[in-house]
Amino acid sequence: MNLPAPHALIAEDEPLLAAALQYELAQAWPELQVVATVGDGLSAVREALALRPEVLFFDIRMPGQSGLDAAAELVDAWPDGQPFPALVFLTAYDQYAVQAFEAQAVDYLLKPLQAGRLQKTVARVRALLAARSGAAPLPETTLAQLRSLLGAGLAPATGAAPTGGPLRFIQAGHGSRIDMVPVDEVLVFEAADKYVRVLTASREHLIRTPLRELLAQLDTQQFWQIHRGTLVRASAITSAVRSDSGKLTLQLHGRPEAFAVSRLYAAQFKAM
Amino acid sequence: MDTDTATKAAPAPKIDWIDKLRYLLQTLAFSLAIAAIQYAIRPERPYEFPLVYSLAIGSLTWACIDFGRHLFPSRSATGWPAGWAGVALPACGMVLGYLGGTALADAWFGFSSWEASGRAQLRVSVVITLVAGLAVTYFFYTRGKAAYLQVHVAQAQRDATETRLKLLEAQLEPHMMFNTLANLRVLIATDPPRAQAMLDHLIAYLRATLGGARSTLHPLQDEFARLADYLEIMAVRMGPRLAFTLDLPDALRAVPVPPLLLQPLVENAIRHGLEPQVAGGQIDVRASTRPGPAGSLLVLEVVDSGVGLGAAPAHDTDRPGSHFGLTQVRERLATLYSAQGTLELIAGEAHGTCARVTFPLNSSTP
Fold it and tell me: Which chain B residue lies closest to A16 (C-alpha atoms)?
């Protein structure tokens, strides 16, 4: 084969399973070099950026950061012009992963690993790498699947979410007082540590409800996700500006600051 | 469908006309029985007399009470007005039914019960109305209550079944099962003796989980053996990220304890304490005693060096069964030892969590 030997990174928190995957890969794809094996999501992002492998095997459930979150972070941090690695998810049991990967541009593997199934994955990844041996940009299908995975993770998991219908008011505590903030006045929801910042044109509130829980109760036509941690009111967007380095930022009507758009969600902003 | 009644009593529940017809027929049956008794006592009078009076008074009394109760806010389950209205309603119903029914029957026969000739009969019919009215009202009331209780018993049974299912689901979580099997699959090829040992632990764990005999007690050493099974499985899976100790003093080995009481606490320590922590950590399970107000208390502790109570905000809530385990332990302690059984969660100094279960050592409670 005229391609250079491909490199792979394995992120799997159970040592025996990581070793087994490495062993099975050595059988199914002898040229592939596993350059690193890590056990958590944070190391996965760090090592992937440092080593730039062509193939990533990410376990979905890992300490520190899930495989899905790690992949989303990696998409943003990945340098422009470099082809994004072929991404394969590993999971013991995730009903939503099975649904979301039906298109199969990136693959998923169910644990316990079956050698025959792994061979199919290897064939698929090799075909993908061969097809884009030049410097191809990040394929939109990968982004779309990652978006749907990140979205799919929240709907069935939070038991309370879909019951109350669309959210009308945000109850924000200020000391002993609770402010009722109409959702219609909110311009931005932004995750910050354990809190979510709720920005209106004139004020800022902090609430404890996680962003993913809020997302399930908000009208996605009204609030667009522009980053893993940011929702903005679509009707308040005045412009999207692309910087020289390719980063996209939004200006909102009524807020002075700019809001960064993740590469994962940048496809929404294209000139007509 | 019944717009006229609906507008009259807005908050009252919808009237079920099939039910109403059934009650009316039952009332008529009672009235016929009363008329028959009266006829048996005084066979010299025509049967038509007691029949008409009984039917008129009975059905009118029924109508006043049964339709009247829709005018009051009622306890939704029994369908009977709460408080004073529940007593006043049958009283008023009986007075109105008696007066109105007598007037109707009088009109039928064309004379007045209130004249001198009918006075003796009047006393008798007052007593009959009172006794029969009370009896019939009581009959309907208890029937409503019985139906209400039946619904509640069924609900309680459903709740209990659901709790058992949720418990099983939490313990046989697919992630746990498939990851364990994946590890076993690797060990079978690479290290058969270790695979066998892990399989034995898995078998013991499954037997305990699926056994379901949670109401009887077993010795504390059995409880510790089940925890050891689970922790051994997790130690294979997590490798160097999990270390654990089990500390059971010899004197406490035979103490009877509820089976699998500590299991959810150990699972929580791993899932919410160690799993989110990149470096993993240590779990210590220990048993001790301490003096209590009424005899010695058994103290069982599950201590982990994980991320602690304050951390892992969203992480905690989006997995099934995360708060369920603690609730379940609390409920079992409350059922078995009432206020003497407690579960405390104590945050560690730097990080980590201690779950402490305390209950009487020499309790004869089942």
Answer: B183
Closest residue of A to B317, CA-based?
A158
pLDDT number for residue B251 = 94
Q: Is residue A26, in this structure, part of any structural domain at all?
A: yes
Say yes or no: B238 contacts chain A, CB-CB below 8 A: yes
Is the CB of B182 inside 8 Å of chain A's CB atoms?
A: yes
Q: For A94, which residue in chain B has the nearest alpha carbon?
A: B175
Task: Express as a percent the part of chain A with pLDDT over 70.
Answer: 83
pTM reported for the whole predicted model: 0.69
Total domains, chain A: 2
CA-to-CA separations, A83 to A2, A134, B46, B79, in angstroms, rounded: 18, 8, 107, 71
Which of B179, B314, B318 shows the shortest C-beta gap to A92?
Answer: B179
Cα–Cα dist B50/B35, whole Å: 5
Using an 8 Å Cβ cutoff, are B332 and B297 in contact? no
The closest alpha carbon to B54, from B44, B67, B40, belongs to B40
A75 and A137 fall within a common domain: yes
CATH number assigned to the domain comprising residue A56? 3.40.50.2300
> What is the model's pLDDT at position B232?
95
Higher pLDDT, A212 or B74: A212
- State whether A142 and A189 are in the same domain: no
Mean pLDDT of B88-115: 83
| Residue range of the domain that includes A31 | 7-151
Virtual CA dihedral for B71, B76, B77, B79, nearest 10 degrees? 10
Indicate yes or no: CB of A212 within 8 angstroms of CB of B175. Answer: no
Partner residue opposite B178 with nearest CB, options A112, A153, A210: A112
Same domain, A147 and A178: no
Across A49-62, average pLDDT: 91
The C-alpha of A212 sits at a distance from chain B's nearest C-alpha, in angstroms, of 8
A179 closest CA partner among A204, A159, A157: A204
Inter-chain CB proximity B238 and A93 less than 8 Å = no
Q: A15 and A92: one domain?
A: yes
CB contact under 8 A, A158 and B237: no
On the question of pLDDT at B3 being above 50, the answer is no
Residues A194 and A229: their CA atoms lie apart, in Å, by 12
Residues A122 and A194 in one domain: no
Distance from CA of A16 to the nearest CA of B (A): 6
